[in-house]
Amino acid sequence: MSNNISHKGLLIILSGPSGAGKGVIYNSVIERMPNIKKSISVTTRAPRPHEIDGIHYHFINIGKYREMIANNEFLETASVYKNFYGTPKAPVFEMLENGDDVMFEIDVLGTKQIKEKYPESIAIFIMTPSFKVLEQRLRGRNTETEDSIKTRLGNAKHELKEYKLYDYFVINDDIDEAIDNVMSIIKAEKLRIEKNEDLINKMLEEMR
Ligand code: 5GP
Q: What is the pTM of this model?
């Protein structure tokens, strides 16, 4: 499958460390902006108790994952915390061809791959006001072991160092403000001149 599709829809990437609140932001934006569709990732990790196959992820085994790699079915793929994650190409292309925007909640490695293929994609990094606050939020969840907190904090530093891959930096201090900021970015991106050329040319045609 080629990566050279023509599309007017936006590819919007949300990344950020676990604990920064990107999941909540992602779901709220999807809920409030009906033209933005979710990209459902594939993962080899086991589902968490509340997670539903086909809604949160497509949960697959390593054999099937390898098969998908061999068939070149991924737009991007990465290993995060010893599990594999990937974005299947076909549904993304279909959504873009239907004129929808697509939003991805993926890590820095995945962002790098999508940005290489689609430099026009919009990458947003979500972060807490500081590492201290990130640590407090991870501890406050009461779901992580000490080891897991350390791993996640180390990983967060690693991810933030890749900030140059991103176009926007949104601090999640107040969640409603962070959601508004992400929505404002998307709205402004949709108003860009190059995204409206067809409409402009149509107006010019009508004036002839
Ligand atoms: P979790 O296992 O907590 O749902 O996700 C762990 C990490 O994997 C998060 O940082 C999330 O953004 C990232 N992730 C989820 N899906 C994908 C994907 O399809 N590709 C990549 N590269 N990362 C993903």
A: 0.93
